[in-house]
Amino acid sequence: QVQLVESGGGLVQAGGSLRLSCAASGRTLSSHVMGWFRQAPGKERECVAQVSWSGGITRYVDSVKGRFTISRDNAKNTVYLQMNSLKPEDTAVYYCAATPTPGREFRHWGQGTQVTVSS
Q1: How far apart are CA 117 and CA 45, in angstroms?
Q2: If you write DSSP's letter for every residue of 62-92 in order, what string do you get?
Q3: Residue 41: strand, helix, or coil
Q4: What is the pLDDT along the chain (119 residues), one digit of tens a residue?
């Protein structure tokens, strides 16, 4: 059973930074595509960033390009999301997820961590 646990969320002023972490347990996810999703109140969940198993390929939603960076440390079974120049519209619950097959549905999900950006 795979467990994903996010941490690092909190309250930050606009323009500030946060670093989210997602620690996996239960099995190694070094061969999985990892992603960060977010869901704001009243909005659909969106994929913010994805990283390939090697860390060599990353993808971002347009709204965070140049501000967010996804990375992973397979030795630690952990994926990160560095968020800079945060905006109030980045406020959401952020979820970590994993899929064993690129392009397929994300199968494993964390419980989420709240990020609130004040103006």
Answers
A1: 18
A2: GGGTTTEEEEEETTTTEEEEEE-S--GGG-E
A3: coil
A4: 889 999 999 999 999 999 999 999 888 888 899 999 999 999 999 999 999 999 899 999 999 999 999 999 999 999 999 999 999 999 999 999 999 988 889 999 999 999 999 99
Cα(21)–Cα(79) distance, integer angstroms: 6
Give the C-alpha separation, 34 to 46, whole Å.
14
Residue 7 corresponds to which amino acid?
A: S
- Direct distance between the N- and C-terminal alpha carbons of the chain, in angstroms, rounded to an integer: 40
Token pair, residue 52, equals: 């390939």
> What CA–CA distance (Å, rounded) separates 93 from 39?
5
Spatial neighbors of 9 by CB under 8 A, at least 6 apart, are 18, 20, 94, 113, 114, 115
C-alpha to C-alpha distances, 12 to 15, 62, 64, 80, nearest whole angstrom: 8, 22, 17, 18
**CA–CA separation, 112 vs 36, rounded Å?**
10
DSSP element (H, E) containing 26: none
